[in-house]
Design goal:
Elements: E1 2-4, E2 10-12, H1 21-35, H2 47-54, H3 58-71, E3 74-77, E4 81-84, E5 100-101, H4 113-124, H5 126-135, H6 145-155, E6 168-170, H7 172-184, E7 190-194, H8 199-208, E8 211-215, E9 217-218, E10 221-222, H9 224-234, E11 239-241, H10 255-268, E12 272-275, H11 289-292, E13 297-302, E14 314-317, H12 321-334, H13 340-352, H14 354-376, E15 390-394, H15 401-410, E16 413-414, E17 416-417, E18 429-433, H16 440-454
Parallel strand pairs: 5-16, 7-8, 7-11, 11-12, 12-13
Antiparallel strand pairs: 1-2, 3-4, 6-14, 9-10, 13-14, 15-18, 17-18
Length: 465
């Protein structure tokens, strides 16, 4: 049941006996829309105004409006408010208790049953060719000759000089980073990295007791002058960076910036650890640092972001044969070997074209999801690369990143704040993964909640009751 106030604004009548207040408000909306009391296009009162009118917490109204959006009762329009949708679109869905998690940066799921069947077919066909040799034998650190050859084939569009004798197979990017970082630096040494960097690298640096030196960034990525100054002051053992589709800012270094970074590294004799997790997603790949300075770059290309997180396979190209021998020992010491079974799956997919088809499907689904983001979020509110599946969202004052993320969690959307990436003081920003929601509809719902929250001011009252 609801009423229309003297000012013509809608307000429900809610009682504690009706159950959770936010559900009672959503139920009242559904009832009034279905009865015709609220017509399509009617603007609902701002959340704070309704909270004041009902004498309840702002967050309860926020949650009620989020539930109403989930049922298809209303829609938010950035900068305009919340409006009733047509009666035909009203749903009687029960309340949602789950969270749409946008915190993990996963490749988006694509809807192609034929390709999925092809992926599984490639796995099952290993029985005929691999036999017990694949299942009951250890393999050498760095991978078999066949798996290295498949890795070289996979990397050839970005590293044309890649050959089987130069490629090493590692148990995922994290395993590769652990081996390379441990090879280049000892406890107490320092490694330079972007001011905002991959959380997994921060974690392994802490494990190895390696200090990370923060290097400033701009819209084009790592700033060469700051890297140069850090080399002079700290004498780092290496530079770790993600030049393409940087995580989390989405920045991609132009060729001039890459050349400048390489020039600084050469000047100071600092090896580079290049994490090319997202490079294959680009239809016209940027030139890797490893192609500019093969003699000083440890190039790492994992399959988790572009093919399948389940494989836990990464390919590494060390600078030379001596570095390859040392790296094989490091891999053997810290991770033993990459799983022969998953390495064989990756090789099979690469050789029979399945991997290329999967990348194409991921690219196409990413494009759809980027379009959804453009349709729901203000264009000046976030930073994105159209070929990547994550967004970087600076948080506008007076919001803080912690309050914004906490409110999103309360409304059913999980995100990750800048704290996870920052070596020093974190900026007021969060990362949103477009690939993590299982469906496009889940993505629309979650981004609509984000858009609505951006249009609101932070609650003056506490979320704790």
């Amino acid at each position: 049941m609801a009423r229309i106030t003297e000012r013509g604004s809608w307000a429900p009548v809610v009682r504690k006996s009706d159950g959770p207040v936010y559900l009672a408000i959503a139920d009242a909306l559904a009832s009034d829309i279905l009865s015709g009391a609220l017509s399509a296009g009617t603007r609902l009162p701002p959340q704070r105004s309704l909270a004041d009118a009902l004498g309840i917490d702002f967050t309860t109204v926020s949650r009620a409006y989020a539930e109403a959006r989930r049922r298809g009762l209303v829609e938010g329009r950035v900068g305009q408010g919340t409006y009733v949708r047509p009666k035909s679109q009203v749903s009687e869905q029960p309340a949602s208790t789950g969270v749409i998690d946008m915190s993990m940066n996963l490749p988006p799921r694509f809807d192609d049953a034929g390709l999925v069947a092809r992926m599984w077919s490639g796995i099952s066909s290993l029985e005929a060719t691999g036999g017990l040799e694949l299942l009951l034998r250890y393999q050498e650190a760095g991978g078999t000759a066949a798996d290295r050859a498949a890795g070289a084939l996979w990397l050839s569009p970005r590293i044309p000089t890649a050959s089987a004798d130069r490629v090493m197979v590692c148990p995922g990017t994290q395993g590769a980073l652990l081996a390379v970082a441990g090879l280049l630096a000892a406890p107490g040494d320092c490694i330079c990295a972007e001011a905002l960097t991959y959380p997994g690298f921060r974690s392994l640096a802490a494990h190895l007791r390696i200090r990370l030196i923060s290097i400033g960034m701009d819209e084009n990525g790592l700033i060469p002058e700051e890297f140069d100054a850090a080399c002079q002051t700290h004498k780092p053992k290496a530079l770790y960076c993600t030049p393409t589709l940087h995580n989390p800012t989405t920045a991609t270094m132009p060729i001039e910036r890459r050349e400048s970074i390489v020039a600084v590294a050469r000047k100071h004799g600092v090896p580079i650890i290049e994490d090319d997790a997202y490079g294959i997603l680009q239809r016209h790949p940027a030139m890797p640092l490893a192609a500019l300075a093969p003699e000083m770059v440890y190039y790492i290309a994992g399959l988790a972001k572009c093919l399948s997180p389940a494989l836990r396979i990464a390919y590494v190209i060390p600078p030379d044969a001596r570095a390859a021998t040392r790296l094989a020992g490091a891999i053997r010491s810290v991770t033993s070997v990459a799983s022969p079974l998953t390495a064989a799956i990756a090789s099979r997919w690469i050789q029979n074209g399945t991997a290329d088809a999967v990348v194409s499907a991921i690219r196409n689904e990413t494009a759809f999801r980027q379009a959804i983001a453009r349709s729901l979020l203000p264009s000046n509110a976030y930073v994105a690369n159209p070929e990547g599946f994550h967004l970087w969202l600076p948080i506008p004052a007076p919001w803080t990143r912690a309050e914004f993320a906490a409110r999103l969690r309360f409304l059913g959307v999980g995100v990750v704040g800048s704290d996870a990436f920052a070596i020093d003081a974190p900026p007021e920003a969060i990362r949103l993964s477009l690939g993590a929601p299982g469906t496009r509809e889940d993505l629309r719902k979650s981004l609509q909640i984000v858009a609505d929250l951006l249009a609101e001011q932070p609650a003056m009252s506490s979320m704790v009751v």
